[in-house]
Sequence to fold (302 residues):
Amino acid sequence: MKPTLFVLAAGMGSRYGGLKQLDGLGPNGETIMDYSIYDAIKAGFGKVVFVIRQSFEADFKAVVVDKFKNLIDVNIVFQDITDVPEGCSYNPQRDKPWGTNHAVLMGKDVIKEPFAVINADDFYGQESFAILADFLRSVEGKQNEYCMVGYHVGNTLSESGSVSRGICVVDENNYLQNVVERTHIEEKAGSIIYLDENGEEVAIPANTPVSMNMWGFTPDYFDYSLEYFKEFLAEKGQELKSEFYIPLAVNNLIVQKRVTCKVLDTPSKWFGVTYAEDRSQVVIKINELIRKGIYPSQLFQK
Fold:
């Protein structure tokens, strides 16, 4: 059975504005998601599942799905704030969904095989999809063996400003021990630095692995996530802005020694539209990849 690609596309770009997932950046209006789907098909994924907000279903199908629906199986699921386990409650004044791991839970009824999770608005690169697909094929029929594609922090910076990244703490066998969120990461005077809890600059090597939210799971992850989501709501359900993130659940599982999570090294360079000013650079980078023959000038023929 081929692995599934699960695409988190329910978020709105607060810094960039609007549905940046639907912004055409390729020469024929291709979105970043289009390149991810192209790479996933090439790597051997057999199905793609999108989690979106139901309010933009029609636009999403027309702009994104119609281009490749005949090339790979497609499912769409919806993330909604009201989708909580029976018996759980939350603050009725809350107006935003519960974060990335809540979004992942929306796939529990349509995904029964090893699956990858990615952001819709991040450009991950062909090598990363190939590496991830190989891992997922290797864990078919297994449980509790997860992975995360670890990008070199120097390959994930924005030219328009500082970024936040989850810095990976790994053991001697490259298994994830923890993900520590660091803010204000940028290149400064030839070094890459972040700001610690005291606002002090800390330099890190350019090849330090960071999470770009590119994960691989076996289907048992849904049961764990549901268990942790119930605990999360009991503790933080009355808060207006608390979020149930993927690293929160994965960290808990690792600490409790219930799962392993291999950090897969990738040579790919990440890019995305963190800031509005990034858009022009992304267009240039995509055109350069087309010039090198890595992508055709038109991904999906009409």
